[in-house]
Specification:
Elements (H helix, E strand, L loop, with lengths): L2 E5 L12 H15 L3 E6 L4 E2 L3 H8 L4 H7 L1 H6 L6 E2 L8 E5 L5 H12 L6 E5 L4 H4 L6 H4 L2 H8 L4 E4 L2 H14 L6 E3 L18 E6 L8 H14 L3 E6 L9 H11 L4 E3 L5 H10 L2 E4 L8 H8 L4 E4 L2 H7 L4 E4 L4 H13 L1 H13 L5 H9 L11
Parallel strand pairs: 1-2, 1-5, 5-6, 6-7, 7-8, 9-10, 9-12, 10-11, 12-13, 13-14
Antiparallel strand pairs: 2-3, 3-4
Length: 388
């Protein structure tokens, strides 16, 4: 590809830095040094334009100043300071529009019309992060389910559908069969876990456990806290730190439960959203992590834990199970607090097991962003790429 546009509309207008926003910002960061014509674009209400100064700052300010200097990202984004509207219909062959977010409303209708027209020469690719709003609506708020099937039907119109796991690719194909939607064969391109640092695991007691994930029902924090309480009641000593914002401001079940546990003297804390630098410090302090999620499109916190030499207690099913199968994880039935507590107990009480799983995680090969970009820019993409 000679030129790649990336739709960064929602990410450029939020300070949240989890899930999709984390992926989009990484794409901006690594794409900036990958190719000259890697252009972030923003929905204006009528079409797409270059990001404003404030939007450019929100795309990159989460990264350290050192990364800015090393990659020249501020200078790169400032090239697009002039406001201009983009006419995608007249973009030539060799141009790609990447949609890594979940568009809705007028933006989705515009992209839908663009994808359906036979007048364009530009290729379109979209990332299908997961289909949980369709396949598991019980875990999805009404506001997020609304219009989601329309978005999935839009995916059937683009030339390339990129999924982060084979589980998500299989769900996309199931949607196609059940809803009668044609479209591209999915390409499986797992998300790179980034440039985390490996630290020697601390052995001081009590051991520290880290859980990274947005507070929402499917992330299953309630079962984690129940499992932790079972262990504390037995007299097992450890501290537990949860990191992640609340999905909804009025979602108080987990913060209230943490407050209740703290009132009993339990060593548990919820830090909300933290910076990348703060997250690295938490990984450095942790003996291992727990990721109790019931369903994921990929499960990036598991990979980020393993690449830093931190074993993870997690599910052995679905997309997370794909990651766990490569080594470094203690898999359990995460929906069962008893099994979850047993897995956590094993890692707390068996240092040899922790060390073995840490070695397994560190020995694994993981995709890099450079490799991910190479697959994206390939003229003939390989749909058979698998999970590390």
């Amino acid at each position: 590809m000679d030129k790649i546009y990336i739709d960064a509309t929602a990410t450029a207008n939020t300070l949240h830095h989890t899930g999709i926003q984390r992926v989009v910002r990484s794409l901006i960061l690594y794409g900036a040094v990958r190719m000259e014509e890697w252009i972030p674009v923003i929905w204006s209400g009528e079409g797409f334009r270059a990001p404003t100064r404030g939007e450019r700052r929100r795309l990159i300010d989460v990264f350290s100043r050192g990364l800015h200097r090393k990659r020249g990202i501020s200078r790169f984004l400032d090239r697009w300071e002039k406001k201009w509207e983009i006419d995608f219909l007249h973009e030539p062959e060799g141009t790609l529009l990447l949609i890594p977010e979940i568009p809705s409303g007028d933006r989705l209708r515009f992209l839908d019309d663009l994808a359906a027209t036979g007048a364009r020469q530009m290729e379109m690719a979209a990332v299908c992060h997961d289909l949980l709003s369709w396949s598991s609506p019980q875990w999805t708020p009404d506001s997020r389910r609304e219009g989601f099937t329309d978005y999935l039907r839009f995916l059937g119109l683009v030339e390339r559908v990129i999924c982060p796991s084979q589980a998500t690719a299989s769900e996309w194909q199931r949607f196609q069969r059940e809803e009668g939607v044609a479209g591209a064969e999915p390409e499986v391109l797992p998300w790179p876990p980034g440039g985390g640092r490996s630290h020697p695991a601390r052995q001081e007691r009590p051991l520290e456990i880290l859980c990274v994930g947005t507070l929402e029902a499917r992330k299953n924090h309630a079962a984690l806290l129940e499992a932790a309480e079972l262990l504390w009641t037995e007299g097992v000593e450890f501290s537990l730190t949860l990191v992640g914002r609340r999905r909804a401001k009025n979602e108080n079940e987990i913060p209230d439960r943490i407050a209740e546990l703290r009132s009993k003297g339990r060593s548990v804390d919820w830090l909300g959203q933290v910076s990348d630098a703060e997250l690295e410090e938490l990984y450095a302090k942790a003996a291992f992590t727990v990721f109790p999620s019931l369903a994921e499109g990929y499960g990036l916190p598991v990979a980020e834990s393993l690449v830093r030499g931190r074993p993870c207690v997690c599910s052995g099913e679905g997309a997370v199970g794909e990651i766990a199968a490569g080594g470094g994880c203690r898999t359990v039935r995460v929906e069962d607090p008893g099994q979850l507590s047993a897995g956590i107990r094993d890692l707390l009480t068996e240092p040899e097991l922790r060390e073995r799983l840490a070695r397994e995680g560190l020995a694994r090969s993981w995709p890099t962003w450079d490799e991910w970009m190479s697959q994206l820019a390939a003229e003939e993409p390989d749909a058979s790429e698998g999970t590390a």
